[in-house]
């Protein structure tokens, strides 16, 4: 007999599949446990215990699974400094784009640039234009998290017309979180329009 419950009103669900032929000599039972409100505090070693007797004295089987957790990658946004009316700047003006994001230790931030219609973006290659910082965060659970900030400083050129700058944050092999700005420039001035993804 399988016993299960929802402790402390947590948003957990249990899906139980009993054997289709309960009289067969070999029977498969399955219980699927879903944590819809998992937090970092839920990282632990979990144990499945099965008691059975069959044709023999009562026996107990155990299964174990170690579950880890990490802070989420979130709150990514790009800002531009200095911020002038309508984001209009003269050509050859120095602009600083800042990408801020929260995430676990080891988070990687990459700047890319390209033309939206081309669908091709390449990593920004001038490393000296980029400054990266990390700050500790106070979190409500047990996952360590940091506030990351990456700044990209460029001098605006006519060649930047229609160019999109993308800030991408990724942890390990997870999907990237991105934000971007697109530059629109004339010979006299430049507009920056923020376009969150």
From TrEMBL:
SUPFAM superfamilies: Immunoglobulin. Transmembrane segments: none annotated. Residues 82-184 form the Ig-like domain. InterPro entries: Ig-like_dom (IPR007110), Ig-like_dom_sf (IPR036179), Ig-like_fold (IPR013783). This is Ig-like domain-containing protein. It comes from Elysia crispata (lettuce slug).
């Amino acid at each position: 007999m399988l016993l299960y419950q929802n402790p402390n009103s947590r948003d957990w669900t249990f899906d139980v599949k009993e054997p289709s032929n309960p009289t067969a000599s070999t029977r498969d039972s399955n219980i699927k446990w879903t944590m819809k409100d998992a937090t970092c505090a839920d990282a632990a070693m979990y144990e499945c215990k099965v008691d059975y007797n069959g044709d023999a004295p009562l026996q107990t089987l155990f299964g174990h699974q170690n579950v880890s957790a990490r802070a989420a990658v979130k709150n990514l946004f790009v800002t531009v400094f200095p911020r002038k009316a309508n984001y209009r700047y003269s050509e050859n003006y120095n602009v600083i784009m800042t990408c801020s994001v929260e995430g676990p230790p080891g988070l990687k931030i990459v700047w890319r640039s390209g033309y939206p219609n081309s669908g091709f973006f390449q990593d920004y290659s001038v490393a000296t234009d980029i400054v990266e910082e990390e700050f500790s965060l106070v979190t409500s659970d047990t996952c360590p998290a940091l506030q990351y900030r990456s700044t990209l400083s460029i001098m605006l050129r006519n060649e930047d017309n229609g160019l999109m700058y993308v800030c991408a944050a990724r942890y390990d092999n997870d999907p990237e979180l991105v934000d971007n700005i697109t530059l629109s420039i004339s010979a006299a001035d430049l507009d920056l329009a923020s376009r969150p993804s």
